[in-house]
Design a protein that fits this description.
Helices cover about 50% and strands about 20% of the residues. The protein is an alpha/beta fold. Helix 1 packs parallel to helix 2 and helix 2 (about 70-85) runs antiparallel to helix 8.
Length: about 240
């Protein structure tokens, strides 16, 4: 059973994260299904842009600790979003945590409703936001992101927009996205592809320079004793042993 459903309306292909049992966590299955759906959307001449949506009250809870994706596969998925020759637009009406913020940052445009919340929770389970830094760091305010990386604090949608994680916020996310989708429907496919290439050049430079090192860092941290303790504590709904 697929974890990503597909639809299309007037040139906008919608890919919906649909894995309710784990709050759309980035499992090996979801990463593979989303990569396949993006490939199909990229090859479909009827699709002008991709809308990345979600079921339930969580856009993505981050990496699935019971069925984590291979770090190389996650890097590949994030790069695929950045390189897709069509705009990828995130529609967020729920919570986004850890690895889910990598998906959000890889998108070209991201809009959220005011009730959405965000957090880089990696430090609280003994790891670091390594792989997702590839799209996150080039697109966010350095001083602000240092705070949220280091503390794992929750931030609201307005703050997420202020620091560059989001493009726009509103009470009705569909109203926020209406002029965006209308705009891409009026743009030529060639113009969209070339304009996106201009906009993503700096992000792709980061992938070229840092992907191998950050993938290795992620693998090393996830196999370390503190990560094992942090993930066990998370699954057992208790504080890890280092909390003071």
């Amino acid at each position: 059973m697929t974890t990503v459903s597909r639809g299309s309306t007037r040139g906008v292909g919608t890919l919906t994260l649909d894995s309710p049992h784990n709050r759309n966590a980035l499992s090996a299955a979801l990463v593979g299904d989303l990569a396949a759906a993006l490939t199909a959307a990229g090859q479909d001449p009827e699709v002008r842009a991709v809308l990345l949506a979600h079921t339930g009250n969580t856009f993505s809870a981050g990496a699935d600790l019971r069925d984590p994706p291979d770090p190389d596969a996650l890097v590949g998925l994030l790069r695929q979003i950045v390189e897709l020759p069509k705009p990828v637009i995130a529609r967020v009406t729920g919570h986004v945590r850890a690895g889910g913020l990598g998906l959000l940052a890889a998108c070209d445009i991201a809009a959220a409703s005011r009730e959405a919340t965000f957090a880089f929770t990696e430090v609280r389970i003994g790891v670091a936001p390594a792989v997702i830094s590839l799209p996150v760091l080039p697109r966010t305010d350095p001083r602000a992101i240092a705070r949220y990386y280091l503390t794992g604090e929750r931030l609201d949608a307005a703050e997420a927009a202020r620091i560059g994680l989001l493009t726009a916020v509103g009470d009705d996310v569909d109203a926020v996205l209406e002029p965006v989708l209308d705009g891409v429907r009026h743009a030529s496919p060639q113009a969209l592809a070339e304009t996106k290439r201009l906009l993503t050049a700096r992000v792709l430079e980061t992938f070229d320079r840092d992907a191998a090192d950050l993938t290795a860092l992620s693998a090393r941290l996830f196999s370390a004793p503190q990560a094992r303790e942090g993930m066990t504590a998370f699954l057992e709904r208790r504080d890890p042993e280092w909390v003071v």
